Amino acid sequence: MPSAVVDKFFRTNKLPQIWCPGCGHGIITRAITVAVEKLGFDRDKICVVSGIGCSSRATGYLDFDTLHTTHGRALPFATGVKLANPDMKVIVITGDGDCTAIGGNHLIHACRRNIGITTIVFNNNIYGMTGGQYSPTTPKFDKGTTAPYGNIDKAFDISNLAASAGATYVGRSTAYHTNLLISLIENGLKNDGFSLIEAISSCPTYYGRKNKKGDAVNMLEWQKDHAVNISAASKMTPESLEGKFLIGEFKNSPEPEYTSEYQKIIDRFNKE
Amino acid sequence: MNSSETVTDKLIINENWCKGCGICVKFCPKKVLTLENEKVKIVDIDKCIQCGQCELRCPDYAIYLRGK
Ligand SMILES: Cc1ncc(C[n+]2csc(CCOP(=O)(O)OP(=O)(O)O)c2C)c(N)n1
Ligand code: SF4
Ligand code: SF4
Ligand code: SF4
After folding, report:
1. A18: exposed, middle or buried (C-beta count within 10 Å: 0-12, 13-18, 19+)?
2. What's residue A271's pLDDT?
3. CB neighbours (10 Å) of residue A49?
4. This prediction's pTM
5. Torsion sign, CA atoms A137, A94, A54, B35
6. How far is A84 from chain B (nearest CA, A)?
7. CATH number for the domain that contains residue A218
8. For labeling, which of A82, A86, A122, B32 is most exposed (least CB within 10 Å)?
9. Hey, is the C-beta of B56 within 8 angstroms of any chain A C-beta?
């Protein structure tokens, strides 16, 4: 008998999952279910949509209405689900590759529209599923199978990108900072419009091995040692923030949600 | 299934699901856990304060608090 939250929200006959030992994706997937449990949402009013990647396999393990779609297209499918069922809470699970490479254009427009979708990006800085190619979030000079001498592209800051494109709730946490992650997902789900939670994950098998980051434990320790909460960062010197990254709530500024604006137009014509 | 479960007053471990990653062992503040043959094992259950950090970060849902 698994724990109560796993028993309630997972397809336990599909467990143990297929992810590598110590992969951060498992930690983040459970965090999502804890957030849903804390909010007490009706699970029949939740739909979870994913694209393709190790991260996107999460929908196969979650016992909600789920859609496992095509690479980069989770947000278009989720947009359809939300437009047809505006009362549904729609959650997108996606990887850094899925969300910001092949699916990057869908991301910025979903943000711009402020459609009621909570997107959780499992950011492990690599394409895990296909064997470690560099992604748009691979740090400059880090290695991937497609960048054996180091990646020369500048990395996207997914949270900044989403906030600038118009997402109305944005936050970042890590697999290590699990309780913060749970509370950001809760707040994201409470926002009616588009929320993006960047969950820093870990891929010990490809990113870790290629970049000599040690094992799964070492990668979580790295998250612990390099993340700085935004509330503490404002009191720190630029020197002490060198090499660190920010976590916490970055944006919470609700605006009218897309499907409710859409409904207003329908209502206008129904009256005439 | 049940034969691979370790049930104590404080914790339950499902050895079938444990992949031996060592995350729970490393971040347990009371050093309650260890790895043996790539599976988690309890060293000293009396020290466990049921903080739940092992459950929070186990990627495989193989360890969790009892009765919570
Ligand atoms: C149209 C298309 N192009 C490419 C692929 C191959 N492919 C599968 S997953 C993936 C990248 C996955 O990376 P990410 O989204 O970061 O997820 P991760 O596996 O790291 O969790 C790619 C390129 C595909 N399935 N479909
Ligand atoms: S390849 Fe990387 S991202 Fe994929 S399951 Fe393994 S550790 Fe996780
Ligand atoms: S509940 Fe806390 S003290 Fe007990 S084993 Fe887990 S991490 Fe250690
Ligand atoms: S964190 Fe989970 S999978 Fe990893 S060693 Fe502990 S019980 Fe096993």
Report:
1. exposed
2. 82
3. 28
4. 0.98
5. positive
6. 34
7. 3.40.50.970
8. A86
9. yes
The pLDDT tens digits for A30-61 are 999 999 999 999 999 999 999 999 999 999 99
pLDDT at residue B1, as a whole number: 47
Contact in structure between A69 and A49 (CB atoms under 8 Å): yes
- CB-CB contact of A101 with A126 (8 Å): no
**pLDDT at B3 (0 to 100):** 59
Nearest alpha-carbon partner for A169 in A144, A151, A186: A186
The 10s digit of each residue's pLDDT in A68-100 is 999 999 999 999 999 999 999 999 999 999 999
What is the rounded distance in angstroms from the CA atom of residue A69 to the CA atom of residue A204?
A: 25
Q: Name all residues whose Cβ lies below 6 A of ligand 4.
A: B 18-24, 40, 58, 60, 62-63
Output the average pLDDT for chain A.
97
Tokens of residue A41, six digits: 């949402």
What residues in A contact B20, CB-CB < 8 Å? 21
How many domains, in total, are found in chain A? Answer: 1
* Residue A251 burial (CB count, 10 A): 17
Amino acid (one-letter) located at A102: I
Cα separation values, A190 from A63, A110, A187, B45, Å:
21, 17, 5, 39
Whether residue B19 and residue A221 make contact (CB cut-off 8 A), yes or no, is: no
Q: Does the distance separating the beta carbons of B22 and A15 come in below 8 Å?
A: no
User: Which residue segment(s) compose the domain that A68 sits in?
Assistant: 3-271
Question: Considering only alpha carbons, which residue of chain A is nearest residue B22?
Answer: A217
Overall fold of domain B2-65: Alpha-Beta Plaits (3.30.70)
* pLDDT at residue A1 greater than cutoff 90: no
Q: Is the dihedral of CA A15, A20, A21, A22 positive or negative?
A: negative
ipTM at complex level: 0.96
Q: What is the pLDDT of residues B34-67, one digit of tens each?
A: 999 999 999 999 999 999 999 999 999 999 999 7
Match 């050093």 to its residue by tokens: B31
Helix boundaries (H) for A47-119: 58-61, 74-84, 96-97, 104-113
Helix (H) or strand (E) holding B34: strand B33-36
